[in-house]
Design brief:
The chain is of the alpha+beta class. The protein is built from 5 helices and 9 strands; from the N terminus they run H-H-E-H-E-E-H-E-E-E-E-E-E-H. Helix 4 packs across helix 5. The longest helix is centred in the C-terminal third of the chain and has 28 residues. The chain is globular, with a radius of gyration of 17 Å. The chain starts with a helix and ends with a helix.
Length: 221
Amino acid sequence: MPSSLQLERFNPTIDATTTASAAIANGVNCPKQPQAAARRLVVPLPLSLSSGRGIAVPDTVARHHAHMVGPNQCCSVVTQPINAPVSAVWPVVRRFDHPQGYKNFVKSCHVITGDGIRVGAVREVRVVSGLPAETSTERLEILDDECHVISFSVVGGDHRLMNYRSVTTLHANGSGTLVVESYVVDVPQGNTNEETCVFVDTIVRCNLQSLAQIAKNRTRN
């Protein structure tokens, strides 16, 4: 279990015990590999949510959740069921130029290179106070409107999460949506794999919970 002192290097407001339990319960941590190698994350898709049926994930989508994990990196995956159709969730998720639409830790975003909704575009994100970061420079790697896949990588900025790359996919589940978000990131010096995953999982989970509420509200309007 990560110590409070070590977690304070990320965020002093996070309770280590509560956060670790929640993150491990809902995400799958990939152990550090002795050599850089592709590792397919075991995405914990529920056998049933509201439909009572299994959710079939095409290989063309599932392959995006296979990450190259180096010797000083960790990876994890977080899932979030949403009581709203994909048609209500995807327009919010795909807005690479407006992540603050559901990511509460983002204060502002400016696209500095390319078109904000095209692969290759680069954005500069400013985060809210209280996090061990000020800015993050991020590049859009994948935007697939047909399969509902979006991916971005961190290419610069003032923060401790170096070489971060995430992939988010949306999956129809009856009248609702299952969101799957996986990532790989360097483990900062002085922190462990578990501490890093606990911290990042917490942020990702907060984002997805916010997304769930926003998408649900969209269906009501």
